[in-house]
Write a structure and sequence with these properties.
The chain has about 375 residues and is α+β, with helices and mostly antiparallel strands. Among the domains are: about 1-85, Helix Hairpins (Orthogonal Bundle), CATH 1.10.287.110; about 270-375, HSP40/DNAj peptide-binding domain (Sandwich). The protein is built from 9 helices and 15 strands. The chain has helices at about 5-10, 15-30, 40-55, 60-65, 85-100, 135-140, 285-290, 350-360, 375-380; strands at about 125-130, 140-150, 165-170, 175-185, 185-195, 205, 215-230, 235-240, 255-260, 270, 275-280, 290-295, 300-305, 315-320, 335-345. The strands form 6 sheets. Strands 10-11-15-14 form a 4-stranded mixed sheet. The protein has a 3-stranded mixed sheet with strand order 1-9-8.
């Protein structure tokens, strides 16, 4: 049995925030879209999602910590905890024993069995969606291709050939489970196992649908229009209700979750709502100051004031030219921070050299003659 905490790479005392952070990191690392055709990655991704479904739910996590499983109402421990024993089955069997030996029930609701033909919600789907920093700034509407299972239209999801229908399993009478009673010193011992005839479905399909092969569903590509809001950050998840797998036996469909990955930008770096960029200025502009224009993320220009005596590495702020806040109704943006780089020219005219030498003499700053040194001249010989 694999430990759910080890799958998410967190300690057992991890906070919910730690679990969520680790989950987002692993989803980004092992998403099948980033490793097409790699079955190992697909299995790893399934385990990550199953582990997160348990550990992110306080009640399921508490049951897992106590028993090593979560019980059948939550789908059970996906990796079979305690040898695959189910708490409902365990206490249900003990209830049968006590009922036989002493009369009356045991453990209340634990004796109840789920109906394999009851309506069940479809599975959720999680996908990675890649956007640019500019997309995150402006927001966008995008078509996303989703591969998912949907109920077969040919057989209406029954799995049976049109004109026929599934039959109730004669062995389990549609329960999906069979009971075996054994006599012991304490009375009768009742064990409950999955019906081997119908594999727990409660029904048997004699004539299978030609389209889906009796499965009742087929895998198809769906194109879904998704609105990605301005201000979204890397690692955030967008929920699209009802866009997941179709439900079973008339149940509601699952949901689609899009994990957002924002690609790095060559000119800007994001820090929360703020943006950082580089501002290249000349030495005279740094010394005497200047009023300049700087490019913003949306391609517009903003005025920036370079004060006299600005040094290399100094940071100047342009207010309100950063990222918008998610679901921002006040139209308030973060700020743009410009990191100053003083551009030192490598090629000068004779007049420029003379002027700089005059400045150096005025400032009593020893300088060279502006010509290549010995080692530079030797290096040039081999060019």
């Amino acid at each position: 049995m694999e430990d759910l905490y080890e799958i998410l790479e967190v300690p057992r005392d991890a906070t919910q925030a730690d679990i969520k952070k680790a989950y987002r990191k692993l989803v980004h690392q092992y998403h099948p879209d980033s490793h097409p055709g790699d079955k190992t990655v697909e299995e790893k991704f399934k385990k990550i999602n199953a582990a997160y479904a348990v550990l992110n739910d306080p009640d399921k996590r508490a049951r897992y910590d106590q028993f090593g499983m979560t019980g059948s109402n939550s789908g059970g421990n996906p990796f079979g905890g305690m040898g695959g024993v189910n708490l409902n089955d365990l206490f249900g069997d003990l209830g049968d024993m006590f009922s036989q030996a002493f009369g009356g029930g045991f453990a209340g609701g634990y004796q109840q069995r789920s109906n394999p033909n009851a309506a069940r919600q479809g599975d959720d789907i999680e996908m990675l969606v890649n956007i640019s920093l500019l997309d995150a700034y402006k927001g966008l509407t995008r078509d996303v291709d989703v591969m998912k299972y949907e109920n077969c239209q040919h057989c209406n999801g029954t799995g049976a050939k049109p004109g026929t229908k599934p039959e109730t399993c004669p062995r389990c009478k549609g329960q999906g489970q069979v009971r075996q009673t054994q006599q012991s010193l304490f009375g009768q011992f009742v064990s409950i196992t999955t019906c081997p005839e119908c594999k727990g479905r409660g029904k048997i399909i004699r004539d299978k649908c030609d389209e889906c092969g009796g499965r009742g569903h087929i895998r198809k590509k769906h194109t879904i229009e998704v609105k990605i809001p301005a201000g979204i950050e890397r690692g955030m998840r967008l929920r699209i209700p009802g866009a997941g797998e179709d439900g079973h036996n008339g149940g509601e469909p699952g949901d689609l979750y899009l994990v957002v990955d924002v690609a790095p930008d060559k000119d800007f770096e994001r820090e929360g709502q703020d943006l950082h960029t580089r501002l290249f200025i000349t030495y005279p502009q740094a010394v005497l100051g200047s009023e300049l224009e700087i490019k913003t993320l949306d391609g517009e220009k903003a005025k920036i004031s370079v004060p006299a005596g600005t040094s290399h590495g100094q940071v100047l702020k342009v207010k309100g030219k950063g990222m918008p806040k998610l679901n921002n109704r006040l139209n308030s943006n973060g700020d743009l921070y410009a990191h100053v780089f003083i551009d030192v020219p490598t090629k000068l005219t004779d007049k420029q050299k003379d002027l700089i030498k005059q400045l150096a003499e005025e400032m009593k700053a020893p300088v060279g003659d502006g010509e290549p040194g010995f080692f530079d001249r030797v290096k040039n010989l081999f060019k």
